[in-house]
Amino acid sequence: MKESIGQVPGLAVILVGQQRDSLTYVRNKKIGSEEVGITFLMTMLPDNCTENEVCNALQSYNENPSVHGIILQLPLPQHLDEGKILGLLTLEKDVDGFHPVNIGNLAMLGREPLFIPCTPQGCIELLIRSGIDIKGKKAVVVGRSNIVGLPTSLLLQRHHATVTIIHAYTKNPDRIAREADILITAAGVPNLVCKNWLKPGAIVIDVGTTPVEDPECEHGYRLIGDVCFEEASKVASAITPVPGGVGPMTVAMLLHNTFESAKRAFKFT
Amino acid sequence: MKESIGQVPGLAVILVGQQRDSLTYVRNKKIGSEEVGITFLMTMLPDNCTENEVCNALQSYNENPSVHGIILQLPLPQHLDEGKILGLLTLEKDVDGFHPVNIGNLAMLGREPLFIPCTPQGCIELLIRSGIDIKGKKAVVVGRSNIVGLPTSLLLQRHHATVTIIHAYTKNPDRIAREADILITAAGVPNLVCKNWLKPGAIVIDVGTTPVEDPECEHGYRLIGDVCFEEASKVASAITPVPGGVGPMTVAMLLHNTFESAKRAFKFT
């Protein structure tokens, strides 16, 4: 793109506060962007900033023609209205795919969202590139967050899986999970999923990441997943680790979405 | 409303073609509106009309301040782009709740759609008014259409059921259905669900309506559901008939949405 039209895609991140895992994610997005030649911009705001400050930062990226993707790093501090702020994000720059229009179009058959949320799309790519046919498979998603569980279930459904979502009110979640050909967990509960949750041969994708103190690690903590990896790996036919499983896929999909957005903006084909 | 502010709600329906069940639905909406004092407007277009004609009709209702709810009666003939036309409908008058923004906000936790689709909301009302606690129940939805199956599954999830959607690619649908505490069918396949699909004591809501010729009926045909009613009624603890089950609830919810929309427009509380 740079060679043919002298333009590069731009990605902007707004980070509020200093939550450790958010810092990790943002760092990885920056490294990824620089590796592939995407201009990376960032606005860091303090934990106690006002809604206005976040909206202003967002608005200025909305209007900046060098920015093709904007990420409001979630979760936001409690005092900020996430729904309201996300609603201000220009649909054409919503590379996270969290705008209600994108989620609505993801949910509905025959519609095409402008962007598919990155983590769900990363999970699907892992399945497809591992040669797994999703159509007709029983898929269970653990957790129903707006940023992972919900869009993952909608996307699996688009790929014609038979999908069940497990959440806090689900009775006997282990029994339901044990029916799954494909189990995707995004609960944020360390070691929730042990071997009695798994059908032998199941495919397990672990999106859970909970930071735990560990002075021996580079940043003083490490991330652990939802799955008891060691025992699960003896039952599953395929399984992703934490870290190093879905995380890098999420970043890759984000860079992909940003590139697609820039192509649309520059009418570059 | 008429007594206190001298205004009444208005509902407009756009009907393309003469599909029999659509005619039935529209007739019921007209009767319902007149019963409760909602002004009912209708535009009937021929089966072979152009997209422009539909869009113009829609646009004129969008701009008409006496209209608070607009219904584009679905399905449209194949040559019309349903997604595109629905996208033109003013969000504030989308009393069917099919706009992607409404579906997105229905799907996401912590967001509130302006309108909840009428048939799904009718099903939930039936459950609630029958004293059934949805939270934690296993719910299975048969069919994933944008107008019934999908929004019903999203709404059940909002009420904290554990939801599975069965569709054309689902393997062993009877086995999955047999796990359901609440089974809602909207497949449009007559007699698909027989007693071996049901757990004893299950609650069954039949949204399926397929018209079949019957010269003895008033309009030359009758509607039949997805469920083998007679045998299912011996297994289920509660079951809705077709016709006369969900249909009247759909109309009631539509009138409710239209009234709510008019209240918002007139700032009437």
TrEMBL record, chains A, B:
Keyword Chaperone attributed: no
Domain Tetrahydrofolate dehydrogenase/cyclohydrolase catalytic per the UniProt entry, residue ranges: 4-96
PROSITE patterns: THF_DHG_CYH_2 (PS00767)
Keyword Oxidoreductase: yes
Family matches, as InterPro entries: Aminoacid_DH-like_N_sf, NAD(P)-bd_dom_sf, THF_DH/CycHdrlase, THF_DH/CycHdrlase_cat_dom, THF_DH/CycHdrlase_CS, THF_DH/CycHdrlase_NAD-bd_dom
Limits of the Tetrahydrofolate dehydrogenase/cyclohydrolase NAD(P)-binding domain: 117-265
GO CC annotations on file: cytosol
Catalytic activity: (6R)-5,10-methylene-5,6,7,8-tetrahydrofolate + NADP(+) = (6R)-5,10-methenyltetrahydrofolate + NADPH
The entry's keywords: Hydrolase, Multifunctional enzyme, NADP, One-carbon metabolism, Oxidoreductase, Photorespiration
Coiled coil start-end: none
Listed pathway(s): One-carbon metabolism; tetrahydrofolate interconversion
Reported function: Catalyzes the oxidation of 5,10-methylenetetrahydrofolate to 5,10-methenyltetrahydrofolate and then the hydrolysis of 5,10-methenyltetrahydrofolate to 10-formyltetrahydrofolate.
Family membership: Belongs to the tetrahydrofolate dehydrogenase/cyclohydrolase family.
Subunit structure: Homodimer.
Entry protein name: Bifunctional 1, mitochondrial isoform X1
Native species: Olea europaea subsp. europaea
